[in-house]
C-alpha cells in the first residue's frame, strides 16, 4: 500500500471514493463557512496572479486580535498538520509521548523524523479521560509531548488544573508540550479550557489551532501555532516551505475572524442541541457513548457498522485503526438538522 492510500485509511473525509455518501466522518462546522469567507473567495480570486505574503502579516494580526496574543507569537501553516510536522522538525525529539487513541498525524510526524514513541493509553473503564497518572509518564528522556483537547476521536476534555500540572512537569523535564486545540471553539464555554494565556509562563507550550473545522474550510488548508518561544517559531518557519499559505487562504482567514462572535455562538448552540438527539438515539440502542464534548460523537457498536452505513449512503469514521482502539468503535459528526434526522432514523432501525 502506498503512502497516499495509507492516508486515506487513517483519515475521514474520503468523499472522492464515496461520492454518493453523505460525509459524517469529518467534523467540520455544520453551518458551513461564514458568508464573509465566501465573499472573500470571490473578491480575492484575481489575486492568484500574485505570490502570497510570505510572512502572512495581515492574517497574523487578525489571529492575534482573535486570540489576544501578539502577531510575533504566531506561525501560520498549510493546515494544522503542517505545523505538527514543522514542530517535530524543529525539535528533532529522540522520544515523544502521545495519547492513545489520538490524532494520527502526531505519530506520522514523529515516525518520519525517526523518533521513538511512548504511549499513554486511555482506557474505556476511565471513559478515555486523561488522569493524573500521566504525570509519571513525563520523564527527562521525553523531548516532546502531544496532547489534543478536546481529544480526537474521543471528544473527551482534560481540565485546566491537570493541564497546568502537565505543563509544570514538562517544564521541569525539558519537554515541549504541543497542545492541539483545533476543536476547542466548538465547546459551549471554550474559555474554561483555552491555554493561550499560559504561553508567557510556559515557553515550553506550543498551541495549535485551525480554521479547518470551526470555520468549515478544510479545502483551503489553514492552521496556526502560538508560542512565546521565538526560537521555536523560527526553527519551525525554517522547516516549512516558503509561500505555504495561499493568497486565498490568507484572505479567507482574515475574513473569517472579522466579527465572528455571532457565528461562533450560533455554532455552539446548534451543535449542542443537535448532538443531544443523536446521543439519545445511540444510548437508547445500548451503544456506549464516550466523551463527545465537541461537534462529534464517539461510540462503541457492533463490528461492520461502517460497511452497513456506507450501503445506506452514510460515510462514518471507523476508529478501529486508531492506536489503542479495536474494531467496533466509531465517530460521527454533527451535520445539518435534516442529515442528523436521517442518521438518527437509520440508527433506530439497526
The appropriate CATH architecture of the largest domain is 3-Layer(aba) Sandwich
Number of strands: 13
The domain count comes to 2
Strand fraction equals: 15-25%
Provide a count of the helices: 11
Q: Using the coordinates shown, work out and report the CATH topology of the largest domain.
A: Aspartate Aminotransferase, domain 2
Assign the CATH superfamily of the largest domain. Type I PLP-dependent aspartate aminotransferase-like (Major domain)
Helix content: 25-40%
Pfam family, one: Aminotran_1_2
Protein name: Threonine-phosphate decarboxylase
Enzyme class: lyase
EC number: 4.1.1.81
Keywords:
350 residues; alpha/beta; Aspartate Aminotransferase, domain 1; Aspartate Aminotransferase, domain 2; 2 domains; 11 helices; globular; disordered N terminus
What does this structure look like?
The chain has helices at 3-10, 35-43, 57-67, 80-91, 104-112, 160-173, 230-238, 247-257, 261-284, 305-311, 337-349; strands at residues 22-23, 74-77, 95-100, 116-121, 144-148, 176-180, 205-210, 223-226, 289-290, 296-300, 314-315, 317-318, 329-333. Strand 3 (95-100), helix 5 and strand 4 (116-121) form a beta-alpha-beta unit. With 350 residues, it is α/β, with parallel strands linked by helices. The strands form three sheets. A seven-stranded mixed β-sheet has the order 2-8-7-6-5-3-4, with helices on both faces. The protein has a four-stranded antiparallel β-sheet with strand order 9-10-13-12, covered by helices on one side. 46% of the residues are buried. The chain is globular. It folds into two domains: 13-33 and 261-349, Aspartate Aminotransferase, domain 1, CATH 3.90.1150.10; 35-257, Type I PLP-dependent aspartate aminotransferase-like (Major domain) (Aspartate Aminotransferase, domain 2).
